[in-house]
Design goal:
Layout lengths: L2 E4 L4 E9 L7 E5 L12 E6 L4 H5 L7 E5 L2 E2 L5 H9 L4 E9 L20 H25 L1
Antiparallel strand pairs: 1-2, 2-7, 3-4, 4-5, 5-6, 5-7
């Protein structure tokens, strides 16, 4: 990784150079002054790496990375659509300056490379939780009818 640790805040920065393919750069973004992804933070973040896209094949960009600049142009205080337009007009060879939260020393480092994020899928937690909630409501209603 050709990055450097920034301050004591647990972040690293890295320059990632990508070559645009016919399908684009191969990732989606979220954020902007008009569509904040994180409350009180108008930064631009990588929301999805597209399988077999330029970013996926390069392997360094990760979902959740904050994009600080594109070809040296700061992304601070941009509306979402202006950031998208900046990416679209960035040319064939694109240089991204990104910031990433450092992983704990005993945690996984990097991404798995299969385009999937680590950990349990959200559905694996929500579905059983919703089923339990529905069962509790049903039992409560049945109990109230008998009183």
């Amino acid at each position: 990784m050709n990055g450097s640790v920034a301050g004591g805040g647990g972040f690293s920065e890295e320059i990632i150079n990508l070559t645009r393919r016919s399908s684009g750069l191969g990732f989606n973004i979220v954020g902007g002054t008009d569509q904040q992804y994180i409350s009180n933070d108008s930064s631009i973040y990588v929301s999805r790496i597209k399988k077999d896209g330029a970013a996926y094949l390069d392997g360094r960009l990760q979902e959740g990375d904050k994009i600080l600049s594109v070809n040296g142009r700061d992304l601070k205080d941009l509306r979402h659509k202006d950031a998208v337009e900046l990416f679209r007009n960035a040319g064939c060879d694109v240089s991204l300056k990104i910031q990433r939260r450092l992983q704990p020393q005993n945690g996984p480092v990097g991404h798995r490379g299969d385009g999937e994020s680590g950990g349990l899928p959200l559905a694996a937690v929500l579905v059983p939780g919703l089923a339990l909630a529905a069962a509790a409501v049903w039992i409560l209603l049945r109990y109230r009818q008998r009183m």
